[in-house]
Amino acid sequence: MEFNLALVNDAVASAYPDREAIVWGAKRFTYRDLARRTNQLANALSERGLGVHRERSELGGHESGQDQLALYLYNGNEYLEGMLGAFKARVAPFNVNYRYVADELRYLLNDAGARGIVYHSCFAPTLAEVLPDLPQLEVLVQVADESNEPLLDGAVDYEELLAATSDERSLDDVSPDDLYILYTGGTTGMPKGVLWRQHDIFVAAMGGRPFGGGDVYESYEAIAENAGRGGLKVVALPPLMHGAAQWSTFTSFTGGGTIVMPEATRHLDPAQVWKAVETEGVMTMQVVGDAFARPLIEELERGDYDTSSLIMLVNGGAAMNPSLKERFLEQVPNAGVLDAVGASETGAQMGHVSSKGQASTGHFTPGPGTVVVSEDLTQLLEPGHEGTGWLAQKGFVPLGYLGDAEKTARTFPVIDGVRYSVPGDRAVWQADGIIDLLGRDSVTINSGGEKIFAEEVEQAIARHREVADVVVCGRPSERWGNEVVALVKLRPGSDVTEQDLLDEAGRHLARYKLPKSMLFLDEVVRSPAGKADYRWAKATVLERLGEG
């Protein structure tokens, strides 16, 4: 049995139509509402000629036979409706980073060959700049917001579009081969569109295996039956343009759960978040590393909130410092902290749960199909191997990168007849079966003949309570080849010195890994999803400090 994401959601909606699917401030949408509105959007897209033109069997792994729909949106019901409505129309939606300037937006929409776009009104001026260079972008759907920007020429209002379209639709033609597209963040290189079959991403990251089990669901009926047990209430914090947020959301939908969004979705308001947890009885919350976790924990320590419903804080996309985990667990001792590891090119791979008094970071239990392969990509390594290898995934993996056959072949090698996804993370598979994740090779610093992993240094510095944020990168050095530099944001009013931070980091790292220089800044740039922007970091270091 293979699955289509639209049919998965439809099976849950048919079985439990009155259950709440999305709660966003005062807005409440049941699964019946979600099905009706996504049918309307699907019909509107189909009526405008968007859909599938070539079936999967005719295409290479780097090719799409469907029209692409850009989602240029902040979080809200429209984002999730945009994804499901596109799936129902056999259109492939993809994520747009809403911080992009015109040149970046132009590149992305051209690279994707987008024929349609759903966007918030506040982005209309930026979109207007690039439209003359995008003749293929024919369908413009504008979501009204407080900016009150007028409709662009040729655009239609989102709610008016839905209201004018039938909410009845047959899904007989959708396929497990239909695409799910996720663009990488581009924090170390140009963004690339990762192409997944919907069945494969469903199993890899969107709830295709019942929680705690390795076997894929047997049928849509089995999915509906499992959802009948009552899904989790999940608070959605990271931007839905981030893969981990999409995966968490659709996993919740698969289980018949409720997505809770705080009223403010364009910035993190910790007080609103904890109020939503208290009011809605939220059971799980997702964060992306210290950038999300720190302000939430600080508010929890200041305030007085009922967190008795919360059973798990799920962290993914960036490391969360053990000291922050301990502070969270001190406030919510009945909960755990789940570190989830995955990538756009692998889906969910590994996990580790920290409980009160036992917090750690970087050590994971591998999930189904997660392995480590040799540095030369010629063999599968066994637990207890010497040296480092590449974290890899087999089984349910992507087809490739949109329009890039060469990078597809590099990232998805075939070893002994098995196709793997190897996106570039270094790892060690310990003899006890635990995998130690060292970090992305593209941000590894080769200094004096030693490999230093940026994330490891970041976590050591971030253990100091006065550090609000930190990103580590390398800069060219005449003596070392490259040397470690830390870009640090301190808490307001802090008088901590560079030596104080080196002393703290030195308690957790070998001396050769310590930064040779530190740059103290008012702000550390991250993606909206909380991931470090290493291209910005390197450019800033060279501009402010030059070469070593």
Tell me the number of strands. 28
User: Globular, elongated, flat, extended or rod-shaped: what is the shape?
Assistant: globular
Main pleated-sheet profile: 15 strands, mixed
**Poorly predicted tracts of residues:** none
SS-derived structural category: alpha/beta
Beta fraction? 25-35%
**Approximately how much helix is present in the residues?**
25-40%
The CATH class name of the domain at 31-210 reads Alpha Beta
Overall mean confidence score, pLDDT = 94
How would you describe what is shown here?
The chain is α/β, with parallel strands linked by helices. Among the domains are: 31-210, Rossmann fold; 367-395 and 404-440, Luciferase, Domain 3 (Luciferase, domain 3, Roll), CATH 2.30.38.10; 448-544, ANL, C-terminal domain (GMP Synthetase, Chain A, domain 3, 2-Layer Sandwich). The protein is 30% helix and 26% strand. The protein has 16 helices and 28 strands. Strand 27 (481-490), helix 15 (498-506) and strand 28 (517-520) form a beta-alpha-beta unit. Helix 1 packs antiparallel against helix 2 (31-47), helix 10 (270-280) packs across helix 11 and helix 14 crosses helix 15. The protein is globular and about 65 Å long.
